[in-house]
What does this fold into?
Amino acid sequence: MPQLRHPLTLLAVAFALGLCADLLFYGRTPGISAPLFVGLLLAALAGIARAEGRLPLTTPGAKRSVVTPGLLALLFAVLVAVRASPLLTVMNILAALGLLLLHAGLYRAAPLSRLAGWRVGLGTARAALVATLLPAPLALQQAGRLSNLRNRGQAFLVVGRGVALALPVLLIFTGLLTMADSIFASYVADVLTLRPPFDLGSAIGHIALIATVAWAVCGGLLVALDDHPVGSLLGPPVAELPAEGETQRLRPAVSLRVLGPGEGLTVLVLVDMLFAAFMLVQGTYLFGGHDTLERTGMTFATYARRGFFELVTVACLALALLWAADLITRRERPWQRRAFVAASAVMVVLVLGMLASAALRMWLYEQAYGFTLLRLLTHTWMIWLACVLLLFLVALVRERPRWFTMGVPAAAVAYLLALNLLNPDAMIVRENLARYHATGDLDGAYLTTLSADAVPALVAALPALGEHRTTVEAHLRARRTALETTAARDGLPGWNLGRARALGALQRL
It folds into this structure.
């Protein structure tokens, strides 16, 4: 735990942020409150760091390593106030929390570029554990100092005598005041019968939220202010090694290569052969589309469901196999390294073909039954997985392990940002309406289950919905009432651009 100049100030700031969280979030839907709170948290950390003389390190790259996670956390908090989709809201909140934790862990640590990539995830988890434990000793330390006040026993005695003298006076005045005001009398009766004049459950909820946030903020601030210039929190730093010779590939600093090159290559080649045989069979109808399905007698649903999830599972397991093989397979000689890269490249290409097959299956299913949020997310996730596979291959060929270990979380951040820009619910409405105009088939009931992000598109499409208009319009009117109720309850802290746009569109009905 860091030695602080002003520990009580840190505790007071943590408690104040707990109160802010209660005012912004309790009983309200997350909205603009999210970026407001994250902004307050980042400002509090900067202010306390300056007061404590514990600013971020000035080594090359350290400032960028600190600023980038903080700004990204603020960006995802802003997106909480932009998108109304519950799924995107949860994902944006989790991303912001994870980036805030990384921001705290790197605040006075070595630059991210000097840390072993695979250790960053484990170190971030360790930072979360440390942040959970650190507030306790600080609070006990400060409580111990307060308990060492001089003459505390005499002070308690003086207060006790004062209470005893004041008790009869208080009873007389209380009796007179209860006779003067019936409302005051009711409060006194509640106190005397141990019935608090407030909702006890709500009070417990407020206290729990304030205490939880204050505890978490205190722990995060202590983690950020602690000194670990050599990266002790997130793992020891590593330097980039030469590209060849006794080179490191996708592996940690301590070599785990216990498998011989012949055994490793045998595994990869045999799996490549299996995948190649599968793709050879797939090639006869991979791009056949509707005509191929008619010849085989398979329905769209059967074709899409039969093997889709299995293919995606195979792709994930293949990526895990490639990474594990790279970690544990010895490759001392140049020909062994070239053979390993070649076998890995073949597997990546074959797995990309399987992903293409899975994507085609899902596309045919969507053409037959329409788009849903799950189907759209599955499609986009397969694109992300294909990018990760290509990233692995590039990192392996170029012998830059950090390109993969650090590129995967960066790709995950980019994927979530792309989802927010895509606005999935609105896209689902547009695609299903285009399919409706082409085929006459529409699941209007499903469209009414989408979030407020889909409402403007639904309102604009009402004139073209035909027989589905009555059902959708009735739902939209009910949604308008719900959104107005939510807006009145949440106030400014719960303001959200998606819900505001939806309410504006609904008010024009």
Summary: The chain has four domains: 7-142+202-225, 152-196, 261-421, 425-506. Residues 334-369 form the longest helix (36 residues). Residues 425-506 form one domain. Confidence is low (pLDDT under 50) at residues 235-254.
